[in-house]
Write a structure and sequence with these properties.
Strand order of the largest sheet: 1-2-5-12-7-10
CATH topology of the largest domain: Jelly Rolls
Number of domains: 2
Helix content: under 10%
CATH class of the largest domain: Mainly Beta
CATH superfamily of the largest domain: Jelly Rolls
Bound molecules: zinc ion
Length: 327
């Protein structure tokens, strides 16, 4: 199977903007509310289509179904591509929300897996904030009462962020992305979102967006507490190779600067996301360039691949440890 690039799936929302085009070169139309670009997706109704070479026009779902061993390797039994990859342009702030854990899967039909998510900041306007986790002592009753008004913000741990910061949220963490942020997002393959508050906003037709207070409170893990940006861990003494996230949900490594390296030969699919500069991925029978804002999937069963990046490059390498999937 070739190296896989996909057409982006573009999403509108009242908090979106134009930076998916102006910074990441996504093919937007004229509207001013482009919020998300889904670059790798295998969800009902949102399925990525291959954009390059022999498999162009084939869907990721078709590839999972027709050749799961080649694409997913040791994760073939999962039956779905195990990651959802997005870019987000939060020109305005997003709702205060929470995503369920897999523990809700038996109780709610829309919950197929949990949804852990990790954000890596590509651009931040001065003073841009994120809201990540509840302050200590906030319980369900406090949150329910506060969610009726603007005082809900007092329940949330919040701080300003800058380019390069990484925030990793377990399912059940109450959160919001503040305005002025352009992010890359790595997630479990699920888009179930329960809104606690939309800051009192209405859409272009004067209507508020739906809230899901009871479900949000059910999905919230009140034991998780505040979440701060991750501290990168240097891998094998190589400062250009940093581990940002290693949870039961997925692993995210960051490779910076000019170098050549080989993705692990581990019979798992890997997703490479170019956050700055450019790279080239080469196997003995394929070669694929990656520019800022582009993503490539390396199938699990692949010839040895080499990644060569320029000196400005920042590249994420994301994969799932199948032993812990769905926890
Ligand atoms: Zn979220």
């Amino acid at each position: 199977m070739q190296l896989l690039k996909f057409h982006p799936i573009l999403k509108h929302a009242l908090w979106g903007g134009r930076r998916l085009r102006s910074v990441l070169n996504k093919p937007l139309g004229p509207d001013s509310d482009y919020a998300e670009s889904w670059d790798v997706a295998d969800l009902p109704g949102d399925i990525s289509i291959v954009s390059r070479c022999r498999l162009a026009g084939t869907s990721l779902r078709q590839l999972v179904e027709s050749d799961p061993d080649t694409l997913l390797g040791s994760q073939a039994s999962f039956g779905r591509f195990p990651l959802l990859i997005k870019f987000l342009d939060a020109s305005k702030r997003l709702s205060i929300q929470v995503h369920p854990s897999a523990a809700m899967a038996g109780r709610r039909p829309e919950v197929t897996t949990g949804k852990a998510e990790t954000w890596v900041v590509l651009q931040a306007d001065p003073g841009s904030r994120v809201y990540a986790g509840l302050k200590p002592g906030v319980d369900a009753q406090t949150l329910r009462e506060a969610a009726r008004g603007p005082e809900i913000v007092d329940c949330l741990h919040s701080y300003t962020v800058q380019k390069g910061d990484c925030i990793s949220l377990l399912p059940g963490t109450v959160h919001a992305i503040g305005e002025g942020l352009l992010l890359a997002e790595v997630q479990e393959p699920n888009n179930v979102t329960y809104r606690l508050s939309d800051w009192g906003r209405v859409d272009a037709h004067g209507r508020p967006r739906e809230l899901h207070l009871d479900l949000a409170l059910e999905a919230t893990n009140f034991n998780l507490g505040p979440v701060n940006p991750v501290t990168p861990i240097i891998v094998d003494g190589d400062e250009s190779h940093q581990r940002l996230v290693a949870t039961q949900h997925f692993v995210v490594d960051r490779h910076v600067a000019a170098k050549a390296w080989k993705p692990a030969d581990d019979n798992r699919p890997h997703v490479l996301i170019q956050l700055a500069g450019s790279s080239t991925v080469t196997t003995h029978d394929d070669e694929c360039s990656l520019q800022l804002g582009e993503t490539v999937v390396l199938p699990a069963s692949r010839p040895e691949a080499t990644v060569v990046s320029d000196e400005d490059s920042i590249l994420l390498d994301c994969w799932v440890d199948e032993l812990r999937i769905g926890c």
